[in-house]
Amino acid sequence: MVMPSYRCRIHVAKMPSMAFQYGLLRLLLAAMLTMLLSSCGNQQARVDTHETLNAALWTQTSAEYAATTLQAYQLAASNLDRALADTQWTAALEQGGDYTDLPPAIMLDLDQTVLDTSSYNARIILEYGSHAREHFSAWCEGSTAPAIPGAKEFIDHAVARGVTVIYISARREHLRDCTTVNLRALGLPLPGQERLLLNDGTPSSSKTQQRVDIASQYRILLLVGDNLNDFVSGSKTDPAARRALVDEHAARWGREWIILSNPMYGNWEASLYEYDYSLPRDERLNHLLQQLQQ
Q1: How many Å apart are CA 110 and CA 196, to the nearest integer?
Q2: Which helix (DSSP H) or strand (DSSP E) does residue 169 occupy?
Q3: Domain of residue 72, residue span
Q4: Dihedrals φ, ψ of 31, to 5°?
Q5: Helical segments of the chain, H only
Q6: What CATH number does residue 105 fall under?
Q7: Is residue 289 part of a domain?
Q8: How many domains does the structure of the chain reveal?
Q9: C-alpha to C-alpha distance for 254 and 146, rounded to whole angstroms
Q10: Low pLDDT (below 70) residues in the chain
Q11: SS3 110
Q12: Residue 123: CB atoms within 10 Å
């Protein structure tokens, strides 16, 4: 009997070729690189496209901004001398009665008028995304804001002529200490806290009411600020009405009223979304975009 013969066949899976493996590796690396670049691109876009980037950079770096503030304060110094010589001169619409014998004073806003707060706006761009009261408070506690170009020279000019300097700010009362430290670090006069008017959240600390109070004690020679509210009441309204207020008092600009440019923030911006600070940032931006004119 003849036994059948069997052949054992062993099937060995063929390994992919080196060319195939190399191609697959290239695809994986390309995919990973694309994801990494996309992530970096998204992060960069978050910073680069902030709505106040150009405004903050213009304020911090441009020769033109420094020129505008120097111009404003040199004009203020010249007008101050004229105001001292004219006993009928007053900058306050709230000034009433016989004020000719009252001691002279000037009233200056603080942020972006005396103190350069653009580094806070830089922090908004790079870190916070948008303004919040607690963010501003944390920044203020550093007490490191420099003086606006021309501000100290003008204030020194006023003090040398016997004029009382009064700072008036929307900063809250809990920031009084750090604000005082900042002013004194810059060598700006602040002989007593009655010369630093802040906001305690009550109607009596509105800028209009504070002008009324100061006008009863001093002849207010000049108002200096960066917001329409620093000069006249009723400015928290729509853009057209705000423009009308400017036109109504056209003769005062560059005379009793000295305004500094502030493209970063202010009631001008809030008026474009009806002062609704509760709106999410993207909704506020949509309101701003709708105001553009082509």
Answers
A1: 10
A2: strand 164-172
A3: 52-262
A4: -65, -45
A5: 18-48, 53-61, 63-85, 118-123, 133-140, 151-160, 176-185, 207-215, 239-248, 267-270, 281-290
A6: 3.40.50.1000
A7: no
A8: 1
A9: 25
A10: 1-48
A11: coil
A12: 16
| 171, containing H or E segment | strand 164-172
Strands 104-109, 196-199: pairing is unpaired
**Residue 239, token pair as written in the block:** 């853009």
28 lies in some domain: no
User: Contact at 8 Å (CB) between 260 and 76?
Assistant: no
Cα–Cα dist 192/190, whole Å: 6
Residue 13 covered by a domain: no
Say which DSSP state 97 is in.
S
pLDDT in tens, 214-268: 999 999 999 999 999 999 999 999 999 999 999 999 999 999 999 999 999 999 9
Contact 170, 186 (CB under 8 A): no
- pLDDT value, residue 28: 62
For strand 104-109 and strand 219-225, is the pairing parallel, antiparallel, or unpaired?
Answer: parallel
pLDDT of residue 25: 60
> pLDDT, tens digit, for every residue of 133-149?
999 999 999 999 999 99
pTM over 0.90? The answer is no
pLDDT at 49: 73
Q: How far apart are CA 67 and CA 80, in angstroms?
A: 20
Q: Residue 199 carries which DSSP code?
A: E
Residue 91 three-state SS: coil
- The residues pairing with 106 across neighbouring beta strands, listed in sequence order, are 165, 222
Tokens representing 170 are: 């929307």
Question: Locate tokens 């060598």: which residue?
Answer: 187
- Residue 12 is assigned to a structural domain of this protein: no
| Alpha carbon 157 to chain centroid, angstroms | 27
